[in-house]
Model the fold of this input.
Amino acid sequence: MGSVVPLHPYAAHAEADRLALAAPLATVFRAGALGAQARLLTLLGSDAPLPVLLDALARYVETWAPSVMCSILLRDPERNVLVSAAAPSLPREYVALIGEVPIGEDCGSCGTAAWRREPVTVYDIATSSLWSGHRHLALPHGLRACWSVPVLEDSGEVLGTLALYCHEPHAPSDAERELITFAAALAKMVVLQHRRLAALWESNERLTLERAAIEAAECEREKLALDLHDGVGQQLVGIEWLLASEAVQATGPQAEALRSLRELVAGVQRDVRALSTWMLPLARRTGRFGDALQELAREAGRQHGLPVRSSVRLRAEPAMDEETRASVLRILQGALHYALSQPDCRGAGLSLDDVPSGLALEVRIECEALGEGAATPLRAIRYRAMQIGAALSFGSPAPGISAMRLTIPPRAPAPG
Done:
């Protein structure tokens, strides 16, 4: 008799422990089983390839019954065949010769089990009709019995098969039937857990690339703003000064033309200054947070030629570090710019209020621009909200109105 002590709190490990506790305890617990179980549990939380995980599983199963050899085949969904994933104790030559196993009736124990979606027990490979096309490969290696169980997804999809081979022809005992059922459940858990982790890693890689793109765009935006402010802006100042100097000395129509040209350059200079201010990092805006927010709203309205109303109702200046302050302003700027650029937008309004969970910033747009879409500006807004731990939601409080609500948790500024 033996028992298994749960070793890990994580989901995959907990599932493995649950299955292990349901293992056939009537089987003699061999000394190597604990080490095999520990290795399997360790691998489950790693990025080990699926064949490595299944090899560890097969070795673990074999510790429960010293007379069996475990084989795990996985289904190739594109060709609908079974291919070997793990068979640590089977002769390598036999595994190589068996190759791909067709899924169908009379295709050995495993091909038939996958076809029928039910366990197939072959007591003697030498006489079974299911092995008529494969017994010449098995018998020279002393393989006489093979019991196979399909590994099925909850939906009924065939993931693969798990089989136990024996050197002597015989029917499985009750304990051995329990063992193969338990082993198939473990195989299902390992395959599905690997699928979930693979999907998570793919999602994380995609998110990492998206974050990198957003941050690169932010750096490029700042560089462009500085080039406009310190480069183009300063050159325009110089040109305006030269035109003013020439206008003082000129007379008649020439003086009037120079003054008109100077006014034109001054207008372009103001536009460049406003654009570079809009693009510069918002952390550079000093003063009270509510004032910075309202200034941003006014700039957005001027830039797009649309009314943008703002309301700030704060009992005191919020406790907020510079990173959070800049991120909130950039979220607001991104939301306003994206929404006000829509051709059917008629204006916007924003409010900032104290709430028990921190600060609530709500932006209402007079169009249906804001929502759970995949547009790049909206992805950037979600990314920045996640960075500062803010809760972000979108909705439509009235027909033709879309809203974004950002709840910002309090965060004290870093000590100076």
Remarks:
- The first strand starts at residue 69 and ends at 76.
- The chain has a mean pLDDT of 76.
- The first helix runs from residue 11 to 21.
- The chain has three domains: 11-201, 219-279, 285-408.
